[in-house]
Amino acid sequence: MSRPETGRKAPRSKGVDGWLLSAPALILLIVAASGPLLIVAIYSVLEKGDYSGVRWILSGEGWFRVLFERDIFDQTISLADANLSIFWRSIKLSIATTIITFGFGLPTAWFIATRPARSRAFWLFLITVPFWTNLLIRTFAIMEVIRNQGILNTFLTHFGLISEPIQILYTDTAVLIGMTYVYLPLMVLPLYAAIDRFDFRLIEAGYDLYASRWQVLRGVILPIIKPGIVAGSILVFIPSLGAYVTPRVLGGGKNMMIGNFIELQFGQGQNWPLGAALSTLLLLVVLVSLIVYTRVSSKDNTNG
Amino acid sequence: MGKTRAFDVTTLPGFTFIAILAFVLLYAPIVTLVIYSFNGGNSVNQWGGFSLEWYAVAAQNEAVQDATARSLIIAVWASVISTALATMAALGTTRRGKFTGQTVIYVIINQPLMVPEIVTAVALLIFFSSVKVATGYSGLGYLILAHSAFCIPFAYLPIKARLEGMDTTMETAAADLYATPLQTFRYVTLPLLLPGVIAGAMLAFIISLDNVIITEFVKSAGQDTLPTYMLGQLRRALTPEVNAISTALLALTILILTLFVFVTKKRG
Amino acid sequence: MRIILVATTALISSTIGAYAEGELNLFNWGNYTSPEMIEKFTAETGISVTITDYDSNTTALTKVEAGGSGFDLVVPSANYIPVYVRKGLIAELDHSKIPNISNIAPEWKDVPWDQGRTHSVPWQWGSVGIAVNTTVYGGDVNTSELFMDPPEELVGKINVVPEMTDVINMAIFNQGGEACTEDLTLLKKVRDKMMAAKPKWLSMDYGTTDKLSSGDYAASVNWNGSTMRARINNPDIVYGYPKEGYPLFMDSVALLSDAKNVDEAYQFINFILEPENAAMISSFARYANGVAGSDAFMPEDMKTAPEIVAPAELAAAGQFIPTCPQSATDLYTAIWTELLK
Question: What is the ipTM of this complex?
Answer without folding.
Answer: 0.84
